[in-house]
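User:
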Amino acid sequence: MKFIIESSAVPIYNRIATAFAKTLMEFGHTVHFIDASGFNETDFVNTINGIEIDYYISTNELNVVQKQSELADSFLFEKIQAKIIFVHHDNLFSAFHSISYIASKLEALINISQRSYHFCLEASNVDLLKAAGIPNAAKINHASEFTATPIETQSQWGVTFIGHLMSSLNLYPADSVPGGQHLQVMAWNRFSQSSYAVQPDIENLVKDPYVLASLGPDADKNLLATQQFLMAGLNKFSSPLRGQLISTIKNHRIDIFGGDLSYGRIKDPLLVLQQSNVHYQPATQNYQDACGIYQSSRINLNISSLQFDSAVNNRIFDVVFSGGFVLTDKRSDLIDICSFSSEICFETPEEMNEKISYYSHTANTARYFDLKVAIHELFKSNFTYANAVDHILKRIAARMMQTT
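Assistant: Predicted structure:
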């Protein structure tokens, strides 16, 4: 078969797109890996429609094919004649903060539902699409192209975190986000109980006519779009939530890579954690650097963003495939896919701190290394890009057989 896949200027998105392209070619398919950023709208549509392909694959919501037309009467994927595969590695609409825009895009996705397929990291996104009348939606998991194996050596780093954060939920300006006071409560609930599901609370929030009225005239026109608008707003609290959790770590040094959103230019107490045991390191320049940090850290801390209730994010897979050890908040998907999840997950900040102490202690090194190896072997057998591509192609083939 013949595919088009867009590249991306965002490194993590480009990694995913490149890995899918490489794997499809290894399967014997033809892949046109394109940079669509330089096209104007008309040339993009005409060029794509002029290429003989079976599927156009979009791996993130910022792809050109997912942009709204300049005339605002359609989205570009509506103008593409080929079948389209959407791989949603973020929550469906987490990048958008307009109810009307989200509603328009959802309507556009409905318009092409018979020639499109959606593969979602987050289970509630599958439910949302099906509720909207888009039947070709299924779950998918992350994979990783890293191939390092666990090694039994002295760690260069102790506890590390790679990613963006802010210092505090208390300091975040909740009033700047529509419905922000409600959303901040949800973030605090996730702080107290990491498996706490926010989607049911979002659904309940849009049932309140007074809340809807506060969100503006578009809020009651499409409740699914309004839910996603609130979810995008809630995701703004992910960075302060991470800082709030990390601030509870008092007895261990923690090194944060790339966490200072101001890159050292602003000393705002919201942006930087002021604790003697917290040390900021420069952001990694590429993901091979991240792989080295993951492998050489005693404990890699993961704190999932609030856009996900169940999904296992890419950091967990990258840590494991780098030969590293991950300690993460509790996600239901991880419980389903990893028989050792109870040993590497925490529900509360207190449990996080207890497990940091346990796995940092040299007396527990044997169990620590056994776990690292066992989880690596489990993931290596199940969560490769080859398995992800095979899952997508088989799912599409099965769906096509049902409709013929």
